[in-house]
Amino acid sequence: MTIRENLEQWEKKYLSPYATLSMNSKGRLKEEEQCDIRPVFQRDRDRILHSKSFRRLKDKTQVFLTPEGDHYRTRLTHTLEVSQNARTIAKALRLNEDLVEAIALGHDLGHTPFGHAGERALDRICPYGFSHSEQSVRTVDLLEKGGRGLNLTMEVLDGIRNHQTKGMPSTLEGKVVRLSDKIAYIHHDMDDAIRGGILTENDVPKEISSVIGETCGERLNHLIHDLVTASKDKDDIVMSEPVAKAMMDLRAFMFARVYRNPMAKSEEDKAEMLMETLYDYYYENTHLLPKEFLRLMDEKGEPRERIVCDYIGAMTDRFAIAKYGEIYIPKSWHG
Fold first, then answer.
1. b/e burial code for range 278-303 (CB count within 10 A of at least 16 → b)
2. Which of 20, 70, 88, 156 sits in a 20 to 30 Å window from 303, CA-based?
3. Phi-psi domain of 243 (left: phi exceeds 0; alpha: psi -120 through 50; beta: other)
4. C-beta of residue 45 within 8 angstroms of C-beta of residue 102
5. Is 0.85 surpassed by the pTM of this model?
6. What is the SS3 assignment for the chain?
7. Between 172-195 and 241-254, two packed helices, what is the crossing angle to 10 degrees?
8. What is the rounded distance in angstroms from the CA atom of residue 195 to the CA atom of residue 269?
């Protein structure tokens, strides 16, 4: 018996009856030989971790564009916090940690530069629309490895595609990541907003803080504990009604005070303009796209509009700014 098969038997014996077992995976789009050491979801986790799109997350905005300070979150640190929250919950509920981690690490791979400002710009200008959750699936299915993709399992793809509020994953592990994403961004975006002087702890309405805690740390702890307690021995991932309401009220508070705050979002119009300008430029000059993107148009018949979005959407903040400067700013003006 291989190491992988021993691990699969351990899952079968130890994990919850509601967990997704590696041996029961629906498989991959392209069939391939199994690894003798790693179960399928662990293998997916490793593929995501070693991908170029994962490394690019370190230079992509989470909420604050070009913040002054070293401790603000990026898209990469957000992803790691989602992963850690999700693994804590999965371990407590005896769910499949490898599946949870793979989904968590891959859920934002398709995010644009400049956070949701970049996403809005591409969604507005591209005739096919643009959603970062669908783009994350497209990234791992098609764009990675020069057009070959990562060939991930159906369960991981499902969790990535359905991690937003509008989606509903088919596995409990996907549902864990979906809620962990919300818990993470509400927690760390408030922490960053306090760091940036946009909020103080005392600004959180008492009807929220009295339910889930007075500080960022208390709230994170309470939300995770409540989710574990409410979901234990259930074929679903849920929160108690008072805590679920408090979390949604806190999310609404964050939208009102942070996500739409002019101080936090003062540069977003410029970022959207930059994204739209790059789209127009590369749409008219597709011959300047990297060869692997041109190959997707020539060999796989991918539409030009989609490929231009693929290229611009994959950029980091820094690379997008550099490309804009290279194209539109005279060399003599560069500092």
1. bbebbbeeeeebeeebbebbeeeebe
2. 156
3. alpha
4. yes
5. yes
6. CCHHHHHHHHHHHHCCCCCCCHHHCCCECCCCCCCCCCCHHHHHHHHHHCCHHHHHHHHCECCCCCCCCCCCCEHHHHHHHHHHHHHHHHHHHCCCHHHHHHHHHHCCCCCCCCHHHHHHHHHHHCCCCCCHHHHHHHHHHHHHHHHCCCCCEHHHHHHHHCCCCCCCCCCHHHHHHHHHHHHHHHHHHHHHHHHCCCCCHHHCCHHHHHHHCCCHHHHHHHHHHHHHHHHCCCCCCCCCHHHHHHHHHHHHHHHHHHHCCCCCCCCHHHHHHHHHHHHHHHHHCHHHCCHHHHHHHHHHCCCHHHHHHHHHHHCCHHHHHHHHHHHHCCHHHCC
7. 50
8. 23
What whole-number distance in Å separates Cα of residue 277 and Cα of residue 47?
33
Per-residue pLDDT of the chain (335 residues; tens, 9 = 90+): 999 999 999 999 999 999 999 999 999 999 999 999 999 999 999 999 999 999 999 999 877 665 555 667 889 999 999 999 999 999 999 999 999 999 999 999 999 999 999 999 999 999 999 999 999 999 999 999 999 999 999 999 999 999 988 889 999 999 999 999 999 999 888 888 888 888 888 999 999 999 999 999 999 999 999 999 999 999 999 999 999 999 999 999 998 888 887 766 668 889 999 999 999 999 999 999 999 999 999 999 999 999 999 999 999 999 999 999 999 988 777 65
Structure tokens, 320 = 């997008």
What does the chain come to in residues? 335
- Alpha carbon separation from 210 to 202, 213, 235, 245, 258 (Å, rounded): 12, 6, 29, 12, 21
**Amino acid symbol at 81:** E
